[in-house]
Amino acid sequence: xxxxxxxxxxxxxxxxxxxxxxxxxxxxxxxxxxxxxxxxxxxxxxxxxxxxxxxxxxxxxxxxxxxxxxxxxxxxxxxxxxxxxxxxxxxxxxxxxxxxxxxxxxxxxxxxxxxxxxxxxxxxxxxxxxxxxxxxxxxxxxxxxxxxxxxxxxxxxxxxxxxxxxxxxxxxxxxxxxxxxxxxxxxxxxxxxxxxxxxxxxxxxxxxx
Length: 209
What we know:
By secondary structure, the protein is mostly helical. It contains nine helices and no strands. It has a domain at 21-109 and 156-198.
């Protein structure tokens, strides 16, 4: 029986799906970078939020390019491991902008003082002949560093990635009206990419014979 024009129009369209490759992804990353540069913004860098969020955005573009480079050079597992950095950047941006944005951005910057103190302690431990004057830290740096109990967490909380991912969103809501979270990104994507960051079985599977 012949198909009418109306029936033909109601048929779902068959769209050919081409899996993205490194070249296509890199093209989109470059388009994003060009778009941002063409805006010719003059950010108010005196505000912590601008300095931090723009720096994180810039880092994400660089990491995205590096991931594409590794894929093009046939290092897919290493590229996948590096892509975890993009997820961590997303968690940081999500957490900082969600609430108390300026205070959280200032804490993010202040954590660098804790890193500097840690390097000073490492040098004193392993290179005891180093002149103390060459690694002396200002009192202000030491005071800020004391506010961070753990050398690995800028938020001041253990389980930092989970904390940033699972905090209920103050703006976006799902179809049920509930605040969204980054639960899937943490439970699935962060966990998955972490296997390739670490020396796990998944990370070395392609090298086993």
